[in-house]
Amino acid sequence: MSSRKQSEAELQELVGKLSKDGGGNGTGDPAARTEQLVTDTSGTLAPEGCLNIDDGLVKQSLSPLLLLLVGLRTDDAHGKGIMEDLTRFFGADLSPGTVYPALHDLDEDGLLEMHELIQTKEYRIDDREAVRETLEDAMQQHLALGFVFQQALDEIDPTDE
Known about the structure:
Elements: H1 3-21, H2 30-45, H3 55-60, H4 62-72, H5 79-90, H6 96-108, E1 112-116, E2 121-125, H7 128-156
Antiparallel strand pairs: 1-2
Helix pairs in contact: 1-2, 4-6, 4-7
């Protein structure tokens, strides 16, 4: 099997997992399913375990990524930990001046709930349905663009079929 067809098959499997139950590990814990999906995706698409997505692309998708990462953490969802997750999962090195305003905007939009602690702020999902709709919309847009890129590759270089 060509590497392109194998990658395509692996991507289709991941899309199927996402569409069915958010990761399919059967734990019933949405955070664990999401973390497993990110880990599976990283392992499939990037053998070194980190997706290393361009920081500019991460910035363009920062709001849905922050919602995903806050939802991932069952506790202690503070800015520093979320920034560490952005680096761990996506290879993104974003400044606090980029991440914190986005977290505050999500709080103002009613998607996140912020709790001020002594030296930090902790975030939680506030409106689960709205967050789900936001993530589904972002997923559909990114998948559609990815499939357009895949089709373009097939048109540009159809010899690898």
